Amino acid sequence: MGKVVFDVQYQTTLAFLISYYFYFTGLSAGSFMISTLSYGFGMEKFKPASKMGVVAAVLLLLLAPQFLLMQVGWPIKSIWNHFVYFNPLSAMSYGAFLLMLYPMNSVVYGIFMFQGNLKMTKIFGLIGIPLALAVHGYTGWILALGVARDYWNTGLMPIVFLFSAMVSGISMMILMIMVRDRFFTKEKTINHELIDSLAKLLGWLLVVDLFLVFCDYSVLLYSKLEAQEVAHFMLFGKMSFWFVIVENLIGKVIPMIIVMIPGMRKSYFWLILAALMNMAGILAMRIVTVYGGQALPLM
Amino acid sequence: MSNPHKSKNSDLPRYGMLIDLDRCVGCHTCEIACKIENDVPLGIWRSWVKEIEKGKYPDVVRSFRPTLCNHCENPICVKVCPVNAAWQREDGIVMLDPHLCVGCRYCMSACPYEVRYIHPTKGMIDKCDFCSTRVDAGLKPSCVEACPSSARIFGDLNDAKSEVAKLVATKAVSTLKPEIGTGPRVYYIGLDPATMEIKREAKLVWEK
Ligand code: SF4
Ligand code: SF4
Ligand code: SF4
């Protein structure tokens, strides 16, 4: 109706650096979960992935907060103030504690694992699971509790974040295990059984992830105007290339088809392709959610 | 582990503003007065006048929506700030503590009215504070003082005899996005819904 003559443009706040931060915490949480499957839950077939999983989880979680610190205006002050002026109502407040506790626990868990102390490994692995869920789930809550934006303000957000963390973590583990087995072991052969189990797990998690996206969008499209507009923006507007093509088609649907078809799953070429596409798609998902979710002007 | 801004005393006024759009002529004086008073850098605004045009020549009308922080009763910016840098005075003015703010920008993305901005040199958030230093000195906010048509009325909403409280009580007033539950304390008379239209497209950061 009205043509805007003068308005002030909102400075897009949380953009790419935060997307990378979310992406790397997601990869870390995902690889941690894989590492606990055998030691924590006794799923023996995943045992060869455990050590690599915990090392990756720790390294990625040292990397991830660097993006966060680059984003905030006062990085050193922010670490100090987060501990001293804690606000229990803010989801972000808990981040500083989680970002300390989770890697510390992972290091202890890793040390016991490398020492072969099964009992302690199990204990710290089980402690680590809620921490890993929290360290990534809280990033979803940060967005969900920023009530201004309908794309974020949904109870599905933390769950969507957890599932995308797990799928991207598994894809990364598949690639890393292939490289390790092929080049850094004595036998120089890939542990086929392990890769196959991980790929199957990836397939089912992708099904759930896509179902969550469907739930989210079906509600957005029937919800109030602002929600409808942002759904249109994602599905048909300027964001559609990133959301529909990169995030969902390349990042989720095609990898899911590849790992669901036994013939393709067993071919390393297709599996590597699927894992790479999925990792790229989840990175796109972070950018679409964080940046795309706030790109539309609110008023 | 503490909130340095908690206090008990509550026998204070509750400040608010009413903007009468039947009087507003869209001159943008309030915008400029605010910029001068608060030394707001180029490219950002604490308060601005959104202006839209409706219809086709010769039947054209313009509508205005002066915009500023709503000093909400239940401010989401205060709730989400991880370090208690966004805080609310007992008299309702929503403030920013520059000693605490770390520039994480969470409050910016959570405010439904997009009135917070990043100060380019301070690296932290800044926004309208109802010219709190002027209010403390017994003066009106700078935009109110500067408005040539007295469209902006500022005062104590708790004081039934104040002009703003009387108008809010007797006129058909509206606030921006009441459904969010933030309880804005900037009221409008004659607000045109077309000034609040939601857009379907945006300019993306990687677009020229
Ligand atoms: S308008 Fe925004 S910045 Fe102002 S008090 Fe309300 S939520 Fe906070
Ligand atoms: S930018 Fe400053 S005021 Fe806003 S949430 Fe972060 S610390 Fe609080
Ligand atoms: S100074 Fe007064 S009349 Fe001019 S735009 Fe602002 S509110 Fe409207």
The structural class of chain B is alpha+beta
Terminal Cα separation of chain B, in Å?
45 Å
User: How would you sum up the major sheet of chain B?
Assistant: 4 strands, mixed
Provide the succession of SSEs of chain A: EHHHHHHHHHHH
How would you describe the overall organization of this protein?
The complex is a heterodimer of chains A (299) and B (208). Chain A has 299 residues and is mainly α. Helices cover 75% and strands 1% of the residues of chain A. Chain A is built from eleven helices and one strand. Chain A has helices at 16-39, 50-71, 75-84, 93-115, 118-144, 157-183, 192-222, 225-235, 240-260, 262-265, 268-290, and one strand spanning 3-6. Chain A is globular. The relative contact order of chain A is 0.13. By secondary structure, chain B is of the alpha+beta class. Helices cover 18% and strands 22% of the residues of chain B. Chain B has helices at 29-38, 76-80, 106-110, 132-136, 142-146, 163-170; strands spanning 15-20, 48-56, 59-67, 86-88, 94-96, 117-118, 125-126, 152-156, 173-174, 186-189. In chain B, the strands form four sheets. Chain B has a four-stranded mixed sheet with strand order 8-1-10-9. Chain B has a two-stranded antiparallel sheet with strand order 2-3. The mean pLDDT of chain B is 92. Chains A and B meet through strand 1, helix 3, helix 4 and helix 8 of A and strand 2, strand 3, helix 2, helix 3 and strand 6 of B. Bound molecules: iron/sulfur cluster (3 copies).
